[in-house]
Design a protein that fits this description.
about 25% helix
Length: about 160
Protein backbone atom coordinates (compact mmCIF):
# COMPACT_ATOMS: atom_id res chain seq x y z
CA UNK A 1 0.00 0.00 0.00
CA UNK A 2 1.36 3.37 -1.04
CA UNK A 3 1.50 6.07 1.65
CA UNK A 4 0.27 9.55 0.79
CA UNK A 5 2.71 12.21 1.85
CA UNK A 6 1.37 14.24 4.77
CA UNK A 7 1.97 17.50 2.95
CA UNK A 8 -0.81 16.93 0.38
CA UNK A 9 -3.68 16.57 2.87
CA UNK A 10 -2.27 19.46 4.87
CA UNK A 11 -2.18 21.72 1.80
CA UNK A 12 -5.73 20.69 0.91
CA UNK A 13 -6.91 21.58 4.42
CA UNK A 14 -5.15 24.95 4.34
CA UNK A 15 -6.65 25.84 0.97
CA UNK A 16 -10.11 24.81 2.18
CA UNK A 17 -9.87 26.86 5.36
CA UNK A 18 -8.40 29.92 3.64
CA UNK A 19 -11.74 30.42 1.92
CA UNK A 20 -13.59 30.36 5.23
CA UNK A 21 -13.36 34.02 6.15
CA UNK A 22 -15.95 36.02 8.02
CA UNK A 23 -15.39 39.75 7.66
CA UNK A 24 -16.64 42.57 9.84
CA UNK A 25 -16.16 46.16 8.78
CA UNK A 26 -17.22 49.24 10.70
CA UNK A 27 -16.94 52.90 9.75
CA UNK A 28 -17.83 54.49 13.11
CA UNK A 29 -19.71 57.73 13.53
CA UNK A 30 -17.39 60.66 14.24
CA UNK A 31 -16.98 61.62 17.91
CA UNK A 32 -18.10 65.21 17.18
CA UNK A 33 -21.57 63.94 16.26
CA UNK A 34 -24.47 64.37 18.67
CA UNK A 35 -27.53 62.14 18.29
CA UNK A 36 -30.41 61.69 20.69
CA UNK A 37 -32.84 59.64 18.59
CA UNK A 38 -32.33 57.12 15.78
CA UNK A 39 -35.18 56.00 13.56
CA UNK A 40 -34.85 52.58 11.91
CA UNK A 41 -36.43 52.06 8.49
CA UNK A 42 -38.08 48.65 8.35
CA UNK A 43 -36.75 46.73 5.36
CA UNK A 44 -39.70 44.74 4.04
CA UNK A 45 -37.37 42.61 1.90
CA UNK A 46 -35.74 41.13 5.02
CA UNK A 47 -37.86 38.17 6.06
CA UNK A 48 -36.56 37.42 9.55
CA UNK A 49 -39.08 37.95 12.30
CA UNK A 50 -37.85 40.15 15.08
CA UNK A 51 -34.79 41.70 13.41
CA UNK A 52 -36.24 45.22 13.29
CA UNK A 53 -37.28 45.00 16.95
CA UNK A 54 -33.82 43.65 17.84
CA UNK A 55 -32.12 46.60 16.12
CA UNK A 56 -34.40 49.15 17.79
CA UNK A 57 -33.87 47.46 21.16
CA UNK A 58 -30.09 47.33 20.85
CA UNK A 59 -29.93 51.00 19.87
CA UNK A 60 -32.13 51.88 22.86
CA UNK A 61 -29.91 49.79 25.14
CA UNK A 62 -26.98 51.97 24.04
CA UNK A 63 -28.68 55.10 25.38
CA UNK A 64 -30.43 56.46 22.30
CA UNK A 65 -34.11 56.91 21.79
CA UNK A 66 -35.04 54.59 18.93
CA UNK A 67 -38.14 54.05 16.86
CA UNK A 68 -38.98 51.99 13.79
CA UNK A 69 -40.88 53.32 10.81
CA UNK A 70 -42.15 52.13 7.43
CA UNK A 71 -42.42 53.98 4.16
CA UNK A 72 -41.60 57.67 4.08
CA UNK A 73 -39.22 59.01 6.69
CA UNK A 74 -40.97 61.03 9.41
CA UNK A 75 -40.16 64.76 9.40
CA UNK A 76 -38.51 64.46 12.81
CA UNK A 77 -36.25 61.61 11.63
CA UNK A 78 -33.01 63.54 11.18
CA UNK A 79 -30.94 60.47 12.07
CA UNK A 80 -32.05 57.17 10.61
CA UNK A 81 -30.65 53.70 10.03
CA UNK A 82 -31.25 51.51 6.99
CA UNK A 83 -30.26 47.84 6.85
CA UNK A 84 -30.27 44.67 4.81
CA UNK A 85 -29.67 41.08 5.93
CA UNK A 86 -29.58 37.56 4.53
CA UNK A 87 -29.54 34.11 6.12
CA UNK A 88 -28.57 30.67 4.80
CA UNK A 89 -29.00 27.09 5.85
CA UNK A 90 -25.99 24.92 6.72
CA UNK A 91 -27.02 22.47 9.45
CA UNK A 92 -28.88 25.47 10.92
CA UNK A 93 -29.96 28.94 9.79
CA UNK A 94 -27.22 31.51 10.21
CA UNK A 95 -26.66 35.16 9.33
CA UNK A 96 -24.61 35.35 6.13
CA UNK A 97 -24.76 39.07 5.45
CA UNK A 98 -25.78 42.21 7.35
CA UNK A 99 -25.21 45.83 6.42
CA UNK A 100 -26.53 48.93 8.15
CA UNK A 101 -25.98 52.59 7.29
CA UNK A 102 -26.64 55.51 9.63
CA UNK A 103 -27.62 58.83 8.08
CA UNK A 104 -28.10 62.42 9.14
CA UNK A 105 -30.62 63.67 6.59
CA UNK A 106 -28.96 62.48 3.36
CA UNK A 107 -25.37 62.38 4.69
CA UNK A 108 -23.85 59.00 5.61
CA UNK A 109 -22.50 59.16 9.18
CA UNK A 110 -21.23 55.58 9.41
CA UNK A 111 -21.90 52.00 8.43
CA UNK A 112 -21.35 48.41 9.46
CA UNK A 113 -21.03 45.19 7.48
CA UNK A 114 -20.92 41.54 8.55
CA UNK A 115 -20.12 39.11 5.74
CA UNK A 116 -19.99 35.34 6.23
CA UNK A 117 -20.74 34.44 2.60
CA UNK A 118 -17.23 32.95 2.29
CA UNK A 119 -17.35 31.38 5.74
CA UNK A 120 -18.55 27.95 4.68
CA UNK A 121 -16.06 26.02 6.81
CA UNK A 122 -15.94 28.52 9.66
CA UNK A 123 -17.99 27.34 12.64
CA UNK A 124 -18.02 30.91 13.99
CA UNK A 125 -20.76 31.68 11.49
CA UNK A 126 -23.29 29.95 13.75
CA UNK A 127 -24.89 31.76 16.65
CA UNK A 128 -27.59 34.27 17.37
CA UNK A 129 -28.04 37.13 14.92
CA UNK A 130 -28.29 39.55 17.83
CA UNK A 131 -24.82 38.51 19.02
CA UNK A 132 -23.37 39.12 15.54
CA UNK A 133 -24.98 42.55 15.13
CA UNK A 134 -24.51 43.99 18.66
CA UNK A 135 -20.71 44.49 18.58
CA UNK A 136 -20.98 46.16 15.18
CA UNK A 137 -23.61 48.63 16.38
CA UNK A 138 -21.62 49.31 19.55
CA UNK A 139 -18.52 50.14 17.51
CA UNK A 140 -20.59 52.25 15.11
CA UNK A 141 -22.10 54.37 17.90
CA UNK A 142 -19.63 54.19 20.80
CA UNK A 143 -18.10 57.67 20.25
CA UNK A 144 -21.39 59.48 19.61
CA UNK A 145 -22.61 62.11 22.06
CA UNK A 146 -26.06 60.87 23.11
CA UNK A 147 -27.31 64.45 23.14
CA UNK A 148 -29.54 65.79 25.80
CA UNK A 149 -33.21 65.05 25.45
CA UNK A 150 -35.44 68.12 25.33
CA UNK A 151 -36.85 69.15 28.72
CA UNK A 152 -40.29 67.84 29.55
CA UNK A 153 -43.08 70.31 28.90
CA UNK A 154 -44.36 72.09 31.98
CA UNK A 155 -41.01 71.95 33.86
CA UNK A 156 -39.90 75.51 33.20
Amino acid sequence: MKKTPLILPLLALISLLSGCAISQNVTPVDSTTSISKIFVLENEKVHMDGLIDELVGQISDMGFESEKYQGDRPESATNYLTYTANWQWDLAMYLTYFKATLYEDEKVLGEVEYDARKGSGNMGKFGKTADKVRPLLVELLEKVDRGTPPPALGNE
